């Protein structure tokens, strides 16, 4: 008797959702600003203003010249993504990888590198204020700092601790 | 006796303290995986890189001669090319990192009937799916693109050097 009631209950639970009408699925499509630029080979892409880049993370490299920092920035950046804009004169590199990043290598005084995300590129085409990001915003600081760490390693690995990279015996 | 019994723990503690106090010594660089040494002048390599992109039917996305950098797009592959070398030197190192690009839909599922929680006994009458098309850049590890590019670049550069 107990088994029969259990079986009846289970049958009702199985049948009841199965009899429910299927939901109507409405699909709509949109793109991001990044998609639009990609389709046009990044024509019309505007490099972010300096003050927007400076809001992000930064690090000073007092032991190095501008050319050395620029060289290290190129080598690290080209391995982060496709470089779509760069100018040695203005010190700006825009790299599109898993995230769109903008780098500013400032000449004045001790060489300082600023880095920030270009968040606008992940905005929806139909609603630019809504950002479609695939990372947690709280991780952004860590992402940017990791980039600067790589830059520091690329730059100083052969200079600050020269005894580690002696050419003798090579 | 007590000291002898605690020696391993003291050793572990000392090791942790000493290693933690050590300087942060960088031990590795980030060299590009694909690189080639060309015995030619900077101008020859620069011009031939542009020519190679043209030959392969690609387009130039960005270039900065003072940096020695060219980004090109061949089919759906973006290629970073860094021509690294001083203008007076005869040997130039060319670094290259290709990225394959794909577009993909990013789906958001929403239900217009906010009061109905789907998945229990009722299913919503309507499900809205918003597909947002985005682009993904991923490092291209296939050797084909790099080989073809370097072959053409090397061939063109050597041909110019001889003439």
How would you characterize the overall build of this protein?
The complex is a heterodimer of chains A (170) and B (163). By secondary structure, chain A is an alpha+beta fold. Chain A contains 5 helices and 6 strands; from the N terminus they run αβααβαββββα. Chain A has helices spanning 2-19, 33-39, 50-54, 66-77, 140-156, and strands spanning 24-31, 57-61, 81-87, 92-97, 100-106, 111-117. In chain A, strands 2-6-5-4-3 form a 5-stranded antiparallel sheet. The termini of chain A are far apart. By secondary structure, chain B is an alpha+beta fold. The longest helix of chain B is centred in the N-terminal third of the chain and has 20 residues, at 2-21. In chain B, strands 1, 2, 3, 4, 5 and 6 form a 6-stranded antiparallel sheet that branches. Chain B is flat, with a radius of gyration of 28 Å. The chains are: A alpha+beta (170), B alpha+beta (163). Chains A and B meet through β1, α2, α4, β3 and α5 of A and β2, β3, β4, β5 and β6 of B.
Seen as an oligomer or otherwise, the chain set is heterodimer
Q: Report the mean per-residue pLDDT of chain B as an integer.
A: 77
N/C terminus separation of chain B? 84 Å
Overall geometric form of chain B: flat
The succession of helices and strands of chain A, N to C, reads: HEHHEHEEEEH
Q: What overall geometry of chain A do the principal axes of the alpha carbons give?
A: elongated
Low-confidence parts of chain A: 165-170
Structural class of chain A: alpha+beta
Q: How many helix segments of chain A? A: 5
Strand content of chain A: 15-25%
